[in-house]
Each structure stands twice: as C-alpha cells, then as structure tokens.
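hey m, so remember when u said the tokens were messed up on ur end? i reran from scratch. heres the input so u can diff it against urs
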Amino acid sequence: MAEPTTLAQRIKAEFDALAERKKSAEQHRAKEAESREKGLAEFGRICDELKSVWRPRIEEFAKQFGEKLKLTPSATPSLREAKAVFLTDMATMNLTLSAAPSLDATKLVLDYDLLIVPIFFDYERHARLEVPLDKVDKAAIGKWMDDQLVSCAKAYLSMQENQIYIQRAMVEDPVTKVKLLREEAKGKLEHGGQTYYFSSEDSLREYKKKLQIEPAPAAIAPAAPTAPASGPAKDRK
C-alpha cells in the first residue's frame, strides 16, 4: 500500500490509525471480560469444592476457642471470607481469612490477615497463597490453612503470657484489693456508672452489703417559711 503523500492523506491516515487502535482495544477488552466471566464461574465452582477443605478447619478452630471467639463467615460471587473477633480484654485481635480470584481471574488467591492492637510482640501479620485455577491442590491448601490457624493460635497464646497485655486487662477487687483478669472474675457489679469485679462471690456479697449500709446521704429539704402570728392587726401611727 502506497504511503500517503498529501497533507490530507497523512492526516486521514492518523485518524484511521486511531480508529484501528480503538477497535483493537475494544476487542481485547471484550475478550478479557469474557475470559474473566469464565474465570469467576470457575472460581465459584472451585470454592464449592474447597468447602470440604476449609469448613472443618475453621469449625475446629472456633471449637478450640469456644466463647473466646466470634466467627462471621460471608460469601459473594468474587469473595469467600471468614472474620474472627477474639473476645479478650488484653487487646483488639481480629483474624480475616479470604479467598478471591486474581485480577485476571486465572488464579485462586488465599489471604491470611491478623491484626493485634496494640502490638507488644512480633507475630505473623499476613500470608498469601496463589494457585492457578486449573491446578488447585486441596492437600496443599489444607496444609496452608493449618499453618496459618496454628500461627494465629500461637499469637493468641503468646499474648496471654505477655506481662504488658496482662497488666492492661487487670482489675482490682474493691473489697480484697486483689488484682485479677476480668475474665477470671467470679462476680461483677454495675453501680454508679462503673463496673466492679470481684475475686469471689463472698467479696461481691460484702460489697453489696456495704452499699446498703452506707447509702448516699439524702438531700436536706429547705426549711418551710414561718407563718405569721394570727390576731388583729395594729394600726400604724
């Protein structure tokens, strides 16, 4: 094809080239969108198969922690997630496990995120495993999940032995003056906008008795004005 020579031909050639590039880009985006749709469908199918891998592990993890853990699972077409909140007075401790497709929907991306605030010791905060959607290995994913859940448990137990966290969670029995962890208290009382913790039920009863013996002083009512004496009024001079 002959090269454009005139000004009009050269300018037209630039416009034609731009139109061709736009057309090619649109075709490429259409192919990417089609490929991503197929990838998302494959992601959903694989997640359904992997329920047998991660569900029993998450359930066992929750079982081990019992009432110390609140677990919230969720699922959308492009995300499977489990959030765990650890119910402890020592720190804010949240765990998130998630599964999502990569941006091009060709890989399964597993993420582990553990947040502890404040931080007074080193622990594994994040881990990621990426697996091609056409090469998902259930055994490898199961082992990865086991490793991350054990890592989280170690972090939690390390916090239980850390004196800084322990001191943050300590309370004092107002009767015996014994210091103890809130979760170890044998009794609790809400009074006057404050919460009191007790090392024993006897201590709680004694404090309640003290509150009854020493009630807040009653407000003193103002004296009533004296009534004027009755009788005939005297004329003023």
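this time it looks ok to me. The beta strands are 69-76, 79-86, 92-101, 107-117, 126-132, 170-172, 179-181, 187-191, 194-198. if urs says something different then somethings off w ur setup not the seq
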